[in-house]
Specification:
Blueprint (H helix, E strand, L loop, with lengths): L1 H8 L4 H11 L19 E6 L5 H13 L3 E2 L2 E2 L7 E5 L6 H20 L10 H8 L2 E5 L3 H22 L5 E5 L5 H5 L16 H18 L3 E7 L1 E2 L19 E2 L5 E2 L3 E2 L4 H6 L2 E7 L11 E8 L7 E4 L5 E3 L1
Parallel strand pairs: 1-7, 1-12, 4-5, 4-6, 6-7
Antiparallel strand pairs: 2-3, 8-11, 9-10, 12-13, 13-14, 14-15
GO molecular function: ATP binding; ATP-dependent DNA damage sensor activity; DNA binding
Protein name: DNA repair protein XRCC2 homolog
InterPro entries: P-loop_NTPase, RecA_ATP-bd, XRCC2
Length: about 325
């Protein structure tokens, strides 16, 4: 009580307040296609797209921007030097993709600083280990494990804050709709006393949103959630990019002529209203015959923006804006 009163009575200049806020909640430069908006702690960003459309790669590149330091031994990396928590619901995350991408970033920044090509296998291993220690990973195999993880996260995040010396800045979920069909099959009847809620897709989604909200109150973070896309007016199936096609199948509408299928959100309304930003990834039309990599287009659905970026994933596993 005494500390609270002393905190209220202390005078603080605008300069001191701004410095404190920027230290506690620093801004981060996000990689394309998330660079268009100034995202900050408390935002819930949904990255929607078919499989594959580089959703997990976007999460990896964003993680690297967060775990890298701003500067290390005279080399500028432009990172936050803050931990990231990655919750894998698809259970397909490949840590080698993260480590290889991080190695390339470290090596590339050193080459720019020194002006020499160097050996691709040479990189600062001390920096690499320090960055990887800031990447926190957990895996869940069903919604109930996910809920249990969310409820125990406050304790884990507090322990990591004491260990790392800084709070976790980003919470990443890949992918939020992984258990949709299993949850949809839950029985709509209570199991126990009359005070317990019935198990259903809606109540499970409400519990997830409530747990994330409680978590953000104690540990403010930027939330990035990937989600597979469903397209079509009345269909519930997901149109995905196949290796043989590399583009969506066009859907002929009554108005005549092939058009891209419209995006259809299948998540419960409680989750849809919880999301503050949503970006949609699509396969790009008009690919060149000489183009060796599939290209993707972005569309900001929430908030609706006129900005649209086109990018590819090169041989090094990096996002390249065209």
């Amino acid at each position: 009580m005494t500390s609270a009163i002393s905190w209220i009575k202390v005078d603080e200049t605008a300069k001191a307040a701004l410095a404190r806020i920027l230290t506690e909640r620093p801004s981060v430069v996000l990689p394309p296609p998330l660079h268009r908006l100034a995202l900050r702690v408390g935002n819930v960003v949904e990255i929607v797209g078919p499989s594959p459309s580089a959703k997990t790669l976007i999460l990896i590149q964003t993680s690297i921007n967060c775990i890298l330091p701003k500067e290390w031994k005279g080399v500028q990396y432009g990172g936050l030097e803050r931990p990231v928590l990655f919750v894998d619901l698809d259970c397909r995350f490949d840590v080698l993709s993260l480590s290889h991408a991080l190695e390339r970033r470290i090596t590339g920044a050193y080459r720019v600083r020194s002006g020499v090509k160097g050996n691709e296998n040479e990189y600062d291993k001390e920096l690499f280990v320090a960055c990887m220690s800031r990447f926190l990973y957990t895996r869940c195999y069903n919604t109930f494990e996910f809920l249990a993880t969310l409820r125990t996260l406050p304790y884990r995040l507090q322990k990591e804050k004491e260990k790392q010396g800084s709070a976790v800045y980003m919470l990443m979920i890949d992918s939020i709709g992984a258990f949709y069909w299993m949850d949809r099959a839950l029985p709509s009847s209570s199991t126990g006393s009359n005070n317990r809620k019935s198990l259903s897709l809606q109540t499970v989604a409400e519990s997830i949103v409530q747990e994330i909200q409680r978590l953000l109150l104690v540990h403010p973070m930027l939330v990035l959630a990937a989600k597979s896309a469903a397209f079509g007016d009345k269909q519930s199936t997901t149109h995905v990019i196949r290796n043989s096609g590399k583009r969506f199948d066009d859907k002929v509408l009554d108005s005549g002529g092939p058009q891209k299928p419209s995006y259809r959100d299948y998540m419960p309304s409680i989750w849809q209203s919880f999301v503050s930003h949503r970006i949609l990834l699509r396969a790009s039309d008009g690919e060149s015959k000489h183009q060796t990599h599939p290209s993707f287009m972005t569309e900001w659905l929430l908030p609706p923006l006129k900005f649209s970026d086109k990018f590819i994933v090169n041989d090094d596993g990096l996002l390249v804006t065209l």
